[in-house]
Amino acid sequence: MSRRRRIYEGKAKVLFEGPEPGILVQYFKDDATAFNNQKKGVITGKGVLNNRISEYLMTRLTEAGIPTHFLRRLNMREQLVREVEIIPLEVVVRNVAAGSLATRFGLTEGTPLPRSIVEFYYKNDELSDPMVSEEHITAFGWATTQEIDEILNLALRINDFLSGLFLGVGLRLVDFKVEFGRLWEGEEMRIVLADEISPDSCRLWDIKTNEKLDKDRFRRDLGNVEEAYQEVARRLGILPEGGPGDLKGPKTMQ
Predict the structure, then answer these.
(1) What average pLDDT does range 43-72 have in this prediction?
(2) Which CATH class is domain 6-84+225-244?
C-alpha cells in the first residue's frame, strides 16, 4: 500500500491526505484518553466500532437533513470525509445531569434537566478545554454571531434526532460532544458537522438499568469497556461481520 501523507493526528483519529483535493481519509485508533489527556489507555477494537457507529449515525443524520463532512466508509478503520476548516469549539449538548455539569452545580447524576443545555468549550488541550461564552467566541474571532446561531440550531436538531434514535434501541442520550467545520465550495461556505459521533463522544445509558455504555467505563475504571462499545453497535445492528473476532482490524498505517 502506498504511503499517504499524514495531515493531522489527534487523540483518537488520524487524518491522511485523500485521493483527491478536498478529501481526507479519517483513520480510527484504539487509543483512549480521558480528563484532557491525563489518563491514557487502549480499548481493543474501539477504532473499528467507532468507525462503524459514526458511519451509521452520520448517514442517518445526513438523511435527516443535517450537513456533515462524512462521505463513505472505506474499510474497518477508515472513512472518506470532506476537508473542512474546523471551528475550534467543542459543542456539548446535555439532557441529563452527569459528568462535569453534575460536579459544577452539585446535581445528583441522572437528574433530568429542565431543557437541553448547550455549552461551548475552547478546543485546546494545553488549556484543558476551558468553557467559554458566546462573548469569548466572537471577541477572539473563533466564530461569528451568525455561525454561532447556525451551530446552536444544528446541535439541537442533532440532539432531537439522536435522542429518538437511541431511545428506539433502549438507550438514553445523556449528553454528547460534537465539532463543526466550515466547508468551502468555491466562494460559498456552509457549517457542517465534523469529527465523529460514537460512544467516545456520547454518554449512553441503558434506559431501564442506567448501565453506562460509553467511555465513562474507561474514565471511571468500571471495566467491560470493549463490551459496552460492542453492545451499542449490536443494538444499532452494526456489529462488524464476524463479531468480536474482527475487532483488532488492520495495523495502524505510518
Answers:
(1) 97
(2) alpha beta
